[in-house]
Design goal:
It contains six helices and two strands; from the N terminus they run αβαβαααα.
Length: 139
């Protein structure tokens, strides 16, 4: 799963559509074919997201987080950087991208120990940049 953090003005369906479309269209190589969301109202424009970014949207059943297992695991990893309930309005898109970078360059068992950045943008993945960013973050 490729982690996408998008700056949006509010949790409206229109803002989610705009933010997710912008970020999903930046993925250079293997754009995800589908994504699975919970039942949040911010995804009311999911059909327009499919049109704008070419990504099919599916919804998990209510109270069924196991249907989104990789997503739930990624949320846990994300909490290392952004505690649950964090207001993202104070973050710039550049800062959100900087938070997503270590998540997207972390090898995953579910991806045969490749990282999402290798999987989704293998031609653009720069191991030197990856290791330099880890050193800068103190990892």
């Amino acid at each position: 799963m490729f982690t996408v953090l998008s700056k949006i003005k509010d949790a409206s369906a229109e803002s989610a559509l705009s933010g997710f479309s912008r970020v999903l269209n930046r993925i250079e190589a293997q754009k995800p074919l589908s994504t699975t969301y919970d039942q949040g109202r911010e995804m009311a424009e999911h059909q327009r997201l499919t049109e704008a970014a070419g990504v099919k949207v599916y919804f998990a059943d209510l109270h069924s987080p196991w249907q989104r297992g990789i997503n739930e695991n990624t949320n846990g990893l994300l909490r290392q950087y952004l505690p649950k309930g964090t207001d993202l309005s104070g973050y710039t898109q550049a800062r959100l991208d900087a938070i997503a970078w270590p998540l997207n360059t972390r090898p995953r068992k579910s991806m045969s120990f490749r990282c999402p950045a290798e999987w989704f943008s293998p031609d653009a993945f720069d191991f030197k940049q990856h290791h330099a960013s880890l050193f800068a973050l103190g990892h």
